[in-house]
Amino acid sequence: MSHPHFDVIDRLAGISPGSAVDRIRSNRQVARDNAQTSYAALFAPATPGTVLLEERFAIAYFVAGLHRDETIATFYRDQLVALGRRGLVDAVSAEIVRGQATGPYGSYPAGPLSSEDKPGLEYRPDSANRDVLGRLGAAFSHAHLLVFRPRDASSAALGMLLNAGWITDDIVKLSQLIAFLSFQIRVVTGLRALAASQQQAVAAE
Amino acid sequence: MTETAISYSDPNRPVAFTQAHIGWAPWLKPLDESQLTQRHWDGLTEASRAKSPYFMLLARDPDILGARTRTDKDIFYNPDAGLPRAERELAAAATSRSNGCIFCASVHARFASTYSKRSEDVDRLLEGGVEVDLGSRWNALVDASVKLTSTPSEFGEEQIGRLREEGLDDLAIADLIYSAAFFNWANRLMLSLGEPTPAA
Predict the structure, then answer these.
(1) Distances from the Cα of B159 to the Cα of A148, B130, B138, B183, angstroms
(2) The model's pTM
(3) pLDDT tens digits, residue range B20-72?
(4) Are B190 and B101 in contact (CB under 8 A)?
(5) What is the sign of the dihedral through the CA atoms of B74, B78, B81 and B82?
(6) Residues of A in contact with B151 (CB under 8 A)
(7) How far is CA A124 from the centre of its chain?
(8) Is residue B82 classed exposed, middle or buried when 0-12, 13-18 and 19+ CB atoms within 10 A define those classes?
């Protein structure tokens, strides 16, 4: 990569070198480095293999959009724009709007936890986007399931991905990608709030 | 050969949160040890993980598995200041309780109990859920974990203020953020790639 010191979480959270949160992150430098290595493994792999970069960034833009974080969604959207077909970007934007929800929700296996079951949107992509999305349609359904109602996951849900043309290795990659983003977005959200609270404390002194 | 998802119909599948040693079974075929190359062993990081169906399934993408494992270990095991291990594990258990991961909650509830010596309080979190009263400091830690787990996030100034009132410094708050965020990664893998199985 042309930016050996580039750190996605720092950039998305607005953490500048020498700032208080930068120093805090340096106390967990292995976690910091490996969060970045995780990003690189998913979004800048040596060989993309059977999951295209366009597919990876389309899913990332969708997942970030579902979290309603403008900065992060724009970061992934811009990379999709650079790689992708214009029609695909517009379709993902429309699917983000269709997929809006508040989680976590879903159902437990029947038993004592059933009283905690919370119904909610069981998202499927717009049939009008079927052609432009292709097998990404099934990936988006699965991504929405993982983002908002992971307790509803099932063997049958993986069967739907297999039927749509994703192989087992692809499904492991997709699952890691969606789950990693769930981590990355929360680290950015949390550290951004921590930085903002420090600035308030400084301003009050 | 066409690949298929594996399904089970165990009438004794765990259906409630517990600190018991339950198991986990994959819905997709893990790698076989005979298929592992050096790159896979590097991703597993510990040879003993070749006995785990969870890690052997994730080994299908060894690069992300290795980076994920090293992230995990620094967040939970780095002993250098910050949040005590017991409370990092509490954040993991509370996040798992909120997302609904019975398997993840069982493992990290046990760790929280071991390090805090507050097993009965941990049981109350598992049984009563994330709203149960665990005392002022644990309530603040659980609430912050749950707010960060919501999609979209509800975590912000209010949670940070409460954590500071409980005596957490900024590194401890960052540890709490990392611990809860990491379990949003772990829960989604455990929940979506397989299911809990009864204690042996």
Answers:
(1) 22, 15, 12, 18
(2) 0.97
(3) 999 999 999 999 999 999 999 999 999 999 999 999 999 999 999 999 999 99
(4) yes
(5) positive
(6) 66-67, 101-104, 147-148
(7) 17
(8) buried
Q: Tokens at residue A195, please?
A: 């930085």
Q: What's the alpha-carbon Rg for chain B, to the nearest Å? A: 18
DSSP bridge pairs for B194: B26
Asked if A30 lies within 8 A of B74 by C-beta distance, the reply is: yes
**Hey, are the CB atoms on A27 and B171 less than 8 Å from each other?**
yes
Structure-token match 């720092």, residue found: A10
Tokens (6 digits) for B161: 């203020």
Q: Are B155 and B148 in contact (CB under 8 A)?
A: yes
Residue contact A172–B60, C-beta within 8 A: yes
- Which residue's entry shows tokens 């717009």? A126
Q: Which domains does chain B have, with CATH numbers?
A: 83-185 (1.20.1290.10)
Eight-class DSSP state of A127:
G
ipTM above 0.95, yes or no: yes
Residues of B in contact with A180 (CB under 8 A): 64, 68, 185
The dotted CATH code for A51-204 is 1.20.1290.10
Nearest CA in chain A to B173: A194
- Domain edges within chain A: 51-204
Q: Which of B81, B68, B78, B60 is nearest to B183 (CA)?
A: B68
- B1 Cβ contact list (under 8 Å, min separation 6): none
